[in-house]
Amino acid sequence: MTTRVYNFYPGPATLPLPALKKAQKDLLDFNGTGMSVMELSHRSKEYAKIHLEAKSLVRELMGVPDDYKVLWLQGGASTQFYMVPLNLQKNGKSMEYVNTGTWSKKAIKEAKFYGEVMVVASSEDENFSYIPKDIKFSDDAAFAHITGNNTIYGTEYHEWPKVPGNDPLACDMSSNIMDKVIDTKKFGVIYAGAQKNIGPAGVTLVIVREDLLDRVPENTPTMQKWKTHVEKDSLFNTGPCWAIYMCKLSFEHLKDLGGIPAIEKINRNKAKILYDIIDKSNGFYRGHAKPDSRSLMNVTFNLPTPELEEWCFKEASAKGLIGLKGHRSVGGMRASIYNAMPIEGVQVLAEFLKEFQEKNQ
Ligand SMILES: *Cc1c(COP(=O)(O)O)cnc(C)c1O
Fold first, then answer.
1. How far is CA 326 from the centre of its chain?
2. Which residue's CA is the nearest one to ligand 1's atom 12?
3. Domain check: are 183 and 304 in the same one?
4. Which of 8, 66, 71, 165 has the largest CB neighbor count within 10 A?
5. DSSP state, 325?
6. Is residue 5 a part of any domain in this protein?
7. Are residues 249 and 266 in the same domain?
8. Is the shortest distance between the CB of 33 and ligand 1 below 6 Å?
9. 18-65 residue pLDDT tens
10. pLDDT digits (tens, 9 = 90+) for 72-108
């Protein structure tokens, strides 16, 4: 017997139970091959099918247009922090970033190795509790870059900033890829470490517009060019087959639920349940994010004292509500309620928080 808990870890994070069960069923013998997916050659016809299906599901679920390529890469979103500027740089053109927290800063740091970086907007003045408004990118940059959801601070873009001219917008969607319907055409590049919202650690999804592939300098190491991976359909070298397979299973589950429009509705309901608890707590729970910047995926809040926060975290853990400690740069609590977190888990957490307040205020 195993007992599943409600897992609120920020990443790696909870996965859909049907996907895990399917993986368990396939573990020793995938489709009559007598082998696990972990043991299949990445050049085998069985794996080729998984590889193709995973990519097709991304296209189908997100409505990715034909002139965009879908890639499975390694090195995490952190590797894309330098692959984005490396692949999109243009001589003499600045790279324009919005700084909305720790992950944006890390992306900015890497871009500086490739040339002039302009930070066109920032919310650092208020500990990244909001998404800046009226973001103005110039019409002559190499590219613009934003972090779609700020995992640590619990803020998310509700509207995408406009990029004038034809400059591509690059977006780190590691913690909100597929959390809501988006128009892929607004972006030049989307990238996401899988381990938050779509799968296990070990693979990074990159979606890139075809016309951007030729900017990369010739003398760039082969593995660092998106183009290499496009030409070989993400099979230039041995990819993370198992992680891609798990993503495929989670996409199948998402499709069964009704796709991204359906999960968006569920996500909005889940987030509302927790933000309502915060808003109706008479200040016992204080949300970190400003209401107009609140994330659907990471709900961040503080309690009146650090001691109460510690106690709340411990009591929650004892009740099987796991991973609620906030990141050290915000403190307090963080409930990561990704696509795979069922609404029941959020309801149990909400009940717990209500009772905790009654007992401790
Ligand atoms: C977790 C996270 C990252 C880092 O991802 P890795 O895959 O560990 O490199 C980058 N950006 C955001 C928004 C994240 O949440």
1. 17
2. 174
3. no
4. 8
5. B
6. no
7. no
8. no
9. 999 999 999 999 999 999 999 999 999 999 999 999 999 999 999 999
10. 999 999 999 999 999 999 988 999 999 999 999 999 9
**What are φ and ψ of residue 84, in 5° steps?**
-60, -60
Say how far apart CA 330 and CA 128 lie, in whole Å.
Answer: 9
CA dihedral (312, 314, 318, 319) in degrees, to 10, reads: 20
Is residue 169 located within the same domain as residue 270?
no
> In 173-211, which ranges are E strands?
189-193, 204-209
Q: Rounded to whole angstroms, how far apart are CA atoms 60 and 65? A: 10
Nearest CA to ligand 1 atom 14: 174
The whole domain housing 342 covers 259-360
Tokens 């307090």 correspond to 332
Q: How far is CA 195 from the centre of its chain?
A: 8
Q: How many structural domains does the chain have?
A: 2
Cβ atoms of 18 and 342 within 8 Å: the answer is: no
Structure token pair of residue 210: 């075809």
Residue owning the nearest CA to atom 7 of ligand 1: 76
Q: How far apart are CA 150 and CA 131, in angstroms?
A: 9
Q: Given this model, what pLDDT does residue 1 score?
A: 47
CB-side neighbour CA atoms (13 Å) of 57:
26
251 and 263 belong to one structural domain:
no
Which of 256, 289, 323 is where one domain is finished? 256
Report, as residue numbers or ranges, the catalytic residues: 103, 172, 196
Pair 149, 197 in one domain: yes
- The residue out of 235, 256, 277 marking a domain boundary is 256
Helix (H, G, I), strand (E, B) or coil at 248: helix
pLDDT at residue 2 in the model = 65
Nearest-atom index, ligand 1, CA of 151: 15
Q: Within this chain, do residues 329 and 250 fall inside the same structural domain, yes or no?
A: no
Atom of ligand 1 nearest to the CA of 11: 1
CATH of the domain at 122: 3.40.640.10
Residues 279 and 223 grouped into a single domain: no
**292 with 191, same domain?**
no
Residue 92: what pLDDT? 84
Q: Which two tokens stand for residue 202?
A: 């070990």
Summary mean pLDDT of the chain: 97
